[in-house]
Structure formats: structure tokens, C-alpha cells
Specification:
About 80% of the residues lie in helices and about 0% in strands. By secondary structure, the chain is mainly alpha-helical. Keywords: Membrane, Transmembrane, Transmembrane helix.
């Protein structure tokens, strides 16, 4: 079960980071905002670390008390689940699009999503890839919680 949860979390984390990289590169081009590429300083290292971690898990098994596993958990929680998944995907895109398309007032939208950091929905592919981040974040978050719960229950049985 633990290996299955690590597999699911790893795959979803990498998928989210690849999607985020594409989304931000596209946004940097269409909005002429090269600063959006800063996300690559997070997404690329997370992709590499997760790949190396997962390869080691496949070859050597899971040692949940290792420093490497601890770094994996913290990196996945902070970068993939919290920063990209919940903040970027759910807040920045799912919530923004839900409010925008359900007719929230311009004042509310500007207060929650101030320019120039945020763009109101005006490009299908940018918003589509942004919303996909939020959609991927949901099963990632649930899988991460199951992984942590499994670790917690496993530790209590010792």
C-alpha cells in the first residue's frame, strides 16, 4: 500500500510540475511577462528530485525513516501540494475562473486577483492549463494525505 501511494503522489506531483511549467511558459509568451518563467526554478528541481527519489524507491524499497524520504515529503507538501497545487491551481485558477464566469463583481475580482500579477480570463489555453493544475491538485492532495495517514498509522503500530 505504501509503495502504491508513493507511486500515485510521485506521478501526480511530476504531472503537476510539467503542466505548471508549460502553463507558465505559455503565459510568459502570450502576456509578454518573462517573470512567469521563475516557476521553472521550482518545477524543474521538483521533477528531477521526484524522479530520482522514485527510481531509488523502485530499486531499494521504501525506507520511511530516511532523510531522503523526509525531504521528499516536505518538498512534495510545500512545492507540489501547497504552492502549485492549492495556491496556483485551486486559488489562482479554479477560484478565479469560477468567480469570473459566475458573474462576481469587478471589484471582488481585482481585490482577490490584482493586476499585473493576475490576468482575468481572456485566453482559453492559459486558463485551461491553469484550471488543470487545480484539477490535478485535488487527487494529489488526497493521495498525499493518504500517504501521511499510512505513515502515521504505520508508526503507531510499531
Amino acid at each position: 500500500m505504501m509503495k502504491q501511494e508513493v507511486t500515485t503522489v510521485s506521478r501526480l506531483s511530476v504531472a503537476l510540475m510539467v503542466l505548471t511549467s508549460i502553463h507558465h511558459a505559455y503565459g510568459a509568451i502570450i502576456y509578454n511577462t518573462p517573470w512567469r518563467l521563475h516557476i521553472l526554478m521550482i518545477s524543474v528541481p521538483v521533477i528531477i528530485f521526484t524522479g530520482v527519489f522514485y527510481y531509488r524507491v523502485l530499486k531499494k524499497g521504501i525506507r520511511t525513516r530516511s532523510v531522503f524520504f523526509g525531504v521528499y515529503l516536505v518538498l512534495t507538501l510545500v512545492a507540489s501540494v501547497a504552492l502549485i497545487g492549492l495556491f496556483e491551481g485551486v486559488y489562482n485558477h479554479l477560484l478565479k475562473n469560477a468567480l469570473f464566469y459566475t458573474g462576481a463583481s469587478h471589484q471582488i475580482l481585482i481585490a482577490l486577483f490584482p493586476p499585473p500579477t493576475y490576468e482575468m480570463p481572456n485566453d482559453f489555453w492559459f486558463e485551461f492549463t491553469g484550471v488543470l493544475q487545480g484539477i490535478v491538485a485535488i487527487p494529489l492532495t488526497l493521495s498525499f494525505v493518504r500517504l501521511i495517514r499510512g505513515l502515521w498509522v504505520g508508526d503507531r503500530k510499531d
